[in-house]
Amino acid sequence: MSENSNINTETKIDTKNNIILKEIQPLWQQIKEDFSTPQQKDPAYNGFLELFFNYPGLIAIAHHRVAHRVYNRGFKLLGRIIMGWAQFMTSIDIHPAAYIGRRVFIDHGIGVVIGETAQIGNDVTIYQGVSLGGVSLEKTKRHPTVLHNVTIGAGAKILGNIVIGENAKVGSNSVVIKNVPNNATAVGIPARIIGQDDKENDKQTTKLPDIDQKMFEYILCRLKIFEAMVQECTQQDINTTMCEKYEELKEQGKILDNMYAEFLKAIKKE
């Protein structure tokens, strides 16, 4: 029973091998949950009938539920054929060996790729163009493990045998090559951790910070301070050290620099 030290029972993951311990659930119950998920996660949902025509992610996952079981029972070619047909219909490429948890929602879906050894927990939301890819050709665990309640933005690439922690968010078009802690937000190329909350995420699961916007805000504020300093000194027509507002503006600059330093520290966190 020495293996138990490597198992996190709360998240049901084997931390030594980055493998989610699979839940045993009847096939039709899984598919029934899948078909109820869009109503909960997509505000554009209008009715049951459109699930068959407007939700390629749902169709791909339903096919995967069958293909995964067939593949694991030794009928690997049949599993590949099922997912090949699903890819033809939906433009979503999921390997039948990949593990997908309950109530996973692939929104829009076009261009999503989920590799052979990828593992996805429960209540994960994935947007179009996401890749859960590998970085080696070895026949080992080489794709990501995504834990519960994760949101992955459009176009994000998560590569290698890494773990995306519970309640984490991955920004659109980010490239993630290192583990992401629980409740953290990762953005950029390569992805950086720019925030980590101890609390569970609220319902705004797609609200991600814009680091470029923060950088521009800093630059604009800095320019305004410099302009005010120059203007004040020009109007006074005396040495800058004698300006009445010079010290006040200088202090504002220091406060802004401290804020910028904290921002840099946040985006450099591993």
From TrEMBL:
This protein's record includes keyword Amino-acid biosynthesis: yes
Keyword terms: Acyltransferase, Amino-acid biosynthesis, Repeat, Transferase
Cross-referenced PROSITE patterns: HEXAPEP_TRANSFERASES (PS00101)
Pfam families recorded: Hexapep (PF00132)
Catalytic reactions of this protein: L-serine + acetyl-CoA = O-acetyl-L-serine + CoA
EC identifiers of the protein: 2.3.1.30
One GO cellular component, as annotated: cytoplasm
Database matches in Gene3D superfamilies: Hexapeptide repeat proteins (2.160.10.10), serine acetyltransferase, domain 1 (1.10.3130.10)
Any one GO molecular function term: serine O-acetyltransferase activity
GO biological process: cysteine biosynthetic process from serine
Top-tier EC class: transferase
UniProt similarity note: Belongs to the transferase hexapeptide repeat family.
Name of the molecule in the record: serine O-acetyltransferase
Source organism per UniProt: Helicobacter didelphidarum
Higher taxonomy: Bacteria, Pseudomonadati, Campylobacterota, Epsilonproteobacteria, Campylobacterales
